Amino acid sequence: MSLYASLWFAFTQVANISGTPEQSASVKYYDIQGHRGARGDAIENTIPAFARGLLNGVTTLEMDNGLTKDGVVVVWHDWDIKDTKCKDTKPAFPNDPDFPYVGKFVANLTLAQIKTLDCGSLRQDEFPMQLTTRGMKISTMEEVFDFVNCVDTKREVSFNVESKVNPRVGGITRNPADFVAAQHAAFVASGYPLSQIQYQSFDWRTLIEMHKVEPQLFLSALIKSNFLEPDGTKSPWHAGLDVRGFPGATLGEKIAYAAASINATILSPADTDHDSPVLDPTVPGYIPFTTKAMIDRAHELGLKVIPWTVNRLNVAQQLIDWKVDGIITDYGASVRALAKSAGLKVRPRFGANRVRQCVKKHIQLTSESLADVDALLVN
């Protein structure tokens, strides 16, 4: 055990960690989170995907954030604009030297440049049932909040927002301080109570920075097995911590202690170990990354546990049996049905007519693409 871990462990035996946000009184339902909205049903991180998530009855809309060259928070997963997800249409202005934009980093493009992209026409190979929305644009965080507020007039939906910061390679994303400043401003401007917003990242520096700015925000420590370093090695992903140096009889328990040490209120591990030879717990050889020991220790430390990305119901069932506090999934409707069958309280679905009206009000499309929206929103 490292000296840091030993000192922190001793401290937590006699004192509670300060700055823990109050639990929201409005949390009524089991936390089924629609990963990138509803990636199994619609193109990820787009307003149509969030619309599907609301129709699927998820409790929380999970999404990713990039930060543009001109400092605008956009809802996008990758460091760059991938040609498997987006197509160029036209330059933002004549003779733009940055055009074409596909292949460029989000951090090196302005919002005006990004808004020219068609990021709704290309179905992802690993999600063959995705419905596309031709001409769909990347949204800003503000635009997503406005759309959800249109549907959710009582403001009951929660959000889980991830900062996409790369701590290993400089220059391909904006830095943690820039992300935190811009995202916090977007959260406050949304009008949603901070108790309905989770802030997550694999780069734990952003969580530490956000806690300084807003200690009442729920912080979710993302982690997966292939981001862990060998014994005694400080990880750039984990704010320079040696995760394996924390107390605990198992790796999962050490991870729980490490997450608690940075004032995280949620631990969000991958469901399955990266090196697992099989993907289903009913098949011999399956290796979970989220373990019962991890969950139990995290709960003892006051952390919730919400694994990702759970796309097999056998995995979801095992995790529910182990008492996880929520599940992040690309298939919100199926996991919602499983949770309901297990006796868990799930959020009612929003009506299709209301969702459709708000999509058509807030979506940025030409008229020929509205047929795609109507097909997508069949409830």
TrEMBL record:
InterPro entries, per the entry: GP_PDE_dom, PLC-like_Pdiesterase_TIM-brl
GO molecular function ontology, one term from the record: phosphoric diester hydrolase activity
Residues annotated as domain GP-PDE: 30-339
Example of a GO biological process term: lipid metabolic process
Gene3D superfamilies per the UniProt record, alphabetical: Phosphatidylinositol (PI) phosphodiesterase
One matching Pfam family: GDPD
Keyword ATP-binding: no
UniProt KW keywords: Signal
UniProt superkingdom: Eukaryota
Secretion signal span: 1-19
PANTHER family: GLYCEROPHOSPHODIESTER PHOSPHODIESTERASE, GLYCEROPHOSPHORYL DIESTER PHOSPHODIESTERASE
Protein name: GP-PDE domain-containing protein
Source organism per UniProt: Agaricus bisporus var. burnettii (strain JB137-S8 / ATCC MYA-4627 / FGSC 10392) (White button mushroom)
